[in-house]
Design a protein that fits this description.
A hairpin with a 4-residue loop joins strand 5 and strand 6. The longest helix is centred in the last third of the chain and has 24 residues. By secondary structure, the protein is an alpha+beta fold. The chain has a domain of 265 residues: Glycosyltransferase, CATH 1.50.10.10. Strands 3, 4, 7, 8 and 9 form a five-stranded antiparallel β-sheet that branches. Helix content is 39%, strand content 11%. Bound molecules: ligand G3I, ligand 9MR and zinc ion (ZN). The site of ligand 9MR has 8 residues, from loops.
Length: 542
């Protein structure tokens, strides 16, 4: 077991470079991997107790070392770290891989070898879906991404995943110039928008053409076994319309209408029309229509307690896109009612509404409301910094924050911090965002790189059906694992993680869906953060 934890994808020459060490020590050495020469000696910081891992840790800072090369860190009595690179482009491959992983989740299409390499597979889920409430009615609903390790397709998490990609593109267009070898590469759209469009094209099909409401999900009745998608032939059921799904849809489509406008006016118009139609349904259904799994079935629920945050987000997007004051009025009223206006989780989407409002042309917004939204956003960023400063690994989560999909929450926090810095420049925001990135890629107490296919100790056994059944040793690359979940919610976690500290309740085992599944909306905030860390020094300061 390693004691010295680094970002296994490396560090850029100009960045602050921090590593974490379990145990106590006074000094560290950075050693050139090629000739084993010591290139830097440094002093460790003070020992701190980390609650989330129940460890005493020390941290070292080797920012001084800027020369590109391959190195490792060595500490007397505690051993060596994995080796890592210093270089300008150390995060480029992982950024492309994180985005490409969404292509690998595509449903209703063959993944051909020229794009998918050895992870190619046949076309899947081509049958029509039947309406849960009226099984005699069939609908064509092929396409979109498989949600996660399962093959369900759910509107709610799709909204978050697409929004993250659109934000990544809007904030960091320079970082997404590479073609990532998907079927559409080389057309007039950047690949990040090509990939998002694959999901948007499916989302259209989930809208009821008559009333504008959006069906919650399209899944088989029960999760299938660990089989390839083309072998999953059970009928696909389209579950009822819900208001969170409809509002997420309205928001996503209204947002897409803006982003695709300059590339394809017709598509943009279609997105806006669908968004407004969904809003019409929401107006006709002012009370929440929340989804709960009916009995005798077990695909993901994506249930919610409230839809106000989703409606708030939808109103922000529709207002920014159309300038129609009806949406502005809704937004202002919802802002007053909401308790949390900053979350970026799949069930708590208000943060997306706030971000959109904060980046709406100043002449369109109400300056008082704007100031309040902004103050709340910045306060949250400060609170995240303060949590991170007390954490041994600089994570922005308290011990109780290691829940199912904790890595998404950590990446969402990094997103929040990056955006907060754009609104109000603050080095602590950027440093803390970087610490979350470092954590994801190995600077954690398990020295685990939580992405498949990258780093020295990548995830090898995600709860991901294709990776389990394709007969290939390496899992599909670029997938973000959910990460530690203290609640031990699956048999493998119960068997292996009992008694462990929260941030250590993780097992790289395909059985452990509560700690080691993958999901499109865990990749998507990673794509955003990867966009940010791929900018050249200071490029992100507007
Ligand atoms: O929010 C509460 C928190 O307040 C509480 O302290 C904590 C204690 O455990 O629980 C938190 O709720 C958890 C919730 O996720 C947070 O988002 C629930 O316990 C936990 O069961 C729930 O897990 C969700 C899981 O589905 C089970 O429903 C995950 O968020 C969600 O990402 C996951 O999604 C699944 C789909 O259903 C099916 N497809 C795969 C996908 C990924 O695993
Ligand atoms: O594979 C399923 C995964 O996507 C879900 O997140 C998880 C919890 O809902 O359930 C997984 O499926 C398991 C099912 O719930 C129980 N039988 C075993 C299934 C896969 O191992
Ligand atoms: Zn499929």
């Amino acid at each position: 077991m390693r004691n010295i934890h680094v970002n296994q994808c490396g560090y850029r020459p100009w960045d602050k470079k921090v590593f974490v060490c379990r145990g106590t020590a006074e000094e560290f050495q950075v050693i050139n991997k090629v000739n084993n020469e010591i290139v830097l000696r440094g002093k460790m910081g003070p020992a701190v107790y980390d609650q989330s891992t129940d460890e005493t840790v020390v941290r070292g800072d080797f920012s001084e070392l800027k020369t590109p090369g391959e190195y490792y860190i060595s500490v007397e009595n505690l051993g060596d770290s994995f080796s890592f690179k210093i270089g300008n482009n150390v995060y480029e491959d992982v950024k492309d891989g994180l985005l490409k992983a969404l292509y690998m989740q595509r449903c209703g299409t063959e993944l051909v070898e020229s794009h998918a390499g050895k992870w190619s597979h046949e076309i899947c889920h081509t049958s029509k879906g039947v309406l849960y409430e009226a099984p005699e009615i069939e609908m064509e609903i092929t396409g979109g991404w498989h949600d996660a390790g399962d093959y369900g397709r759910y509107v709610v998490p799709a909204g978050k995943a697409v929004a993250d990609l659109l934000l990544a593109y809007e904030f960091f267009p320079e970082a997404f110039k590479n073609e990532i070898n998907i079927p559409e590469s080389g057309n007039n759209l950047p690949d990040i928008l090509n990939e998002a469009k694959y999901e948007l094209d499916w989302l259209f099909k989930m809208q009821n053409a008559n009333n504008g409401g959006v069906y919650h999900k399209a899944t088989t009745q029960f999760f299938c076994g660990m089989i390839m998608p083309e072998k999953d032939l059970a009928p696909i059921v389209i579950y009822p319309i819900s208001s969170p799904a409809t509002a997420d849809f309205a928001a996503t489509m209204a947002y897409a209408a803006r982003v695709y406008e300059k590339f394809d006016k017709e598509y943009s118009r279609k997105c806006l029309e669908a968004a407004e139609k969904a809003w019409t349904w929401l107006k006709a259904n002012p009370e929440p229509v929340l989804f709960k799994n009916p009995p005798n079935m077990n695909s993901g629920e994506y249930g919610d307690k409230s839809d106000l945050d989703e409606r708030y987000w939808a109103s922000a997007e529709l207002y920014k896109t159309t300038g129609n004051t009806e949406y502005h009025e809704y937004f202002e009223a919802a802002f007053k009612e909401l308790k949390d206006t900053n979350s970026l989780g799949w069930a708590d989407m208000a943060g997306y509404g706030s971000i959109t409002y904060l980046f709406t042309e100043r002449s369109m917004v109400d300056s008082e409301v704007y100031a309040k939204v902004k103050a709340g956003f910045i306060d949250k960023a400060r609170a995240l910094v303060s949590i991170s400063q007390k954490d041994g690994y600089k994570v922005t989560r308290l011990p109780e924050g290691y829940i199912w999909g904790s890595n998404m929450n950590i990446l969402n926090n990094a997103m929040h911090l990056v955006i907060a810095d754009i609104l109000e420049s603050n080095n602590a925001f950027i440093e803390t965002a970087f610490s979350q990135w470092n954590y994801l890629l190995g600077a954690n107490s398990l020295s685990q790189c939580y992405v498949t296919g990258y780093g020295s100790k990548p995830i090898m056994h995600p709860h991901h059906r294709p990776s389990e059944d394709d007969g290939i040793t390496e899992p599909v690359p670029g997938l973000v694992s959910g990460g530690p979940c203290r609640a031990l919610l699956d048999p493998a976690a119960k068997a292996h993680c009992g008694g462990k500290a929260p941030a250590k309740c993780f097992i790289d085992d395909a059985e452990s869906y509560s700690t080691n599944e993958i999901a499109i909306y865990w990749n998507s905030p990673a794509v955003f953060v990867a966009g940010f860390v791929n900018l050249k020094m200071c490029e992100f300061k507007p």
